[in-house]
Each structure stands twice: as structure tokens, then as C-alpha cells.
Design goal:
- The protein is α/β, with parallel strands linked by helices.
- The protein has 2 domains: 130 residues, Response regulator (Rossmann fold, 3-Layer(aba) Sandwich), CATH 3.40.50; 60 residues, Arc Repressor Mutant, subunit A (Orthogonal Bundle).
- The chain is built from 10 helices and 6 strands; from the N terminus they run βαβαβαβαβαβααααα.
- The model has no long low-confidence stretch (mean pLDDT 89).
Length: 206
């Protein structure tokens, strides 16, 4: 009986799909058992083949939007999902991981990194994300993330302080620390960074 890790690739860009299939087929212990170019076909294959790993693009043709699609693939018995996408907003990525994806890789990653992530997921590791995405984000605490969400939604220091039952001075100090951590120069830059990284809109489409 084969001990290779079985992988299903669901990806609508043919060049990317071909590159993944070719590259992963050369990786020891990894066996690509199928591929699909839309979410409906991919989900049908996943339920039938029950692969160890589903390598899933986030934006695919098909009847399901990203949120419901990720939930559906994560519910396939015996399979673990690694998202492979160009979407780099951390707040967006955190939602995907919270829905059950075991890993999140950017499409700029090498096939070798994809294969290593597949092995790590099979060994039981969770919430693996591209190193590129960790730059700066790893330093931001949960409390600071809440402040970023409020800033991105246009809230003032006083509003944030009221919501968090603290003082405006405390909020200001927290924002000053975030400026240092993220290498930004002003409150305006911090707000722009928060918006660009998805903190102002934390819902995926259905």
C-alpha cells in the first residue's frame, strides 16, 4: 500500500496548474491524484478521491463564493486544505485559517516550499503561512489587531477608547507602538496600511 501523500490540485490558471502538477510529481513521497479547474468539479473530485491534501486556489469559477467554498472543502472527510492564492491581506487570510484551512501559501512560493508545507500539514502542523506574510504581522498582537480594525473603519481615538473601555491616551500609545513595529510614519499611514491589509472589511463574500 502506497504511503505517498495524495494531493488534489484545484486551480483555474492552466500554467500554474501545469507547473504544480509537474513540480510536485518530482517530489519524493507526494502523489498528485487529480486536478480540477473550478470549485464544483474540484469538490466532487475531493469527495470521491478523499485526498490527503487539497491544494486550493481561493478565487475559482463555480457556483460557490470563497467563504462557502473554503468551508465545503474543509469539510471533506480525511482531507486537509492548503490554500494557494495571490491574496495577501492578513485579515482575509486569518478568516480562511479560522474556517479550517491548515495552510495558506502565496503563489510566489516555489514548488519545493509547497511540497514541504504539504509534508508539514501531514505531520499535524496547522496555520502554516508564507514567510513573506509573516513580516510585520507576527509582531502585531490580538489587541493591536482590534485597534487596526477600528482605525480602518474610520473610528477616532476617543471612539476606540470608548469601545475598549480605556483612555484615548492609551489608544494613542498603542498606535505609536504600531507605527514603530510596522515602520510607518503617521496615523494616516497606519490607517492606510490597515485598510490595504483588509482590516476594514473582515467578511469574505458568501
Amino acid at each position: 500500500m502506497s504511503t505517498d501523500i495524495s494531493v488534489l490540485i484545484v486551480e483555474d490558471h492552466q500554467v500554474t496548474l501545469d507547473g504544480l502538477k509537474h513540480g510536485l510529481s518530482r517530489e519524493q513521497g507526494v502523489n498528485v491524484i487529480g486536478s480540477a479547474s473550478n470549485s464544483d468539479e474540484g469538490l466532487e473530485l475531493a469527495k470521491r478521491l478523499r485526498p490527503d491534501i487539497i491544494l486550493l486556489d481561493l478565487h475559482l469559477p463555480g457556483s460557490a463564493g470563497p467563504k462557502s467554498m473554503v468551508k465545503a472543502f474543509c469539510s471533506v472527510p480525511g482531507s486537509r486544505v492548503v490554500v494557494f492564492s495571490g491574496e495577501s491581506r492578513m485579515a482575509f487570510i486569518q478568516i480562511v485559517l479560522a474556517m479550517g484551512a491548515a495552510g495558506y501559501l502565496l503563489k510566489s512560493e516555489s514548488v519545493g516550499t509547497v511540497a514541504e508545507t504539504i509534508r508539514q500539514v501531514m505531520s499535524g502542523k496547522k496555520s502554516i503561512i508564507s514567510e513573506e506574510l509573516l513580516n510585520g504581522e507576527q509582531k502585531v498582537t490580538r489587541s493591536e489587531q482590534e485597534v487596526l480594525k477600528m482605525l480602518a473603519r474610520g473610528m477616532k481615538y476617543q471612539d476606540i477608547a470608548d469601545m475598549r473601555s480605556t483612555s484615548p491616551a492609551t489608544v494613542r500609545k498603542q498606535c505609536e507602538l504600531l507605527l514603530l513595529k510596522l515602520g510607518l510614519a503617521s496615523r494616516e499611514e497606519l490607517i492606510a496600511w490597515a485598510v490595504q491589509n483588509g482590516y476594514g472589511s473582515l467578511e469574505l463574500e458568501p
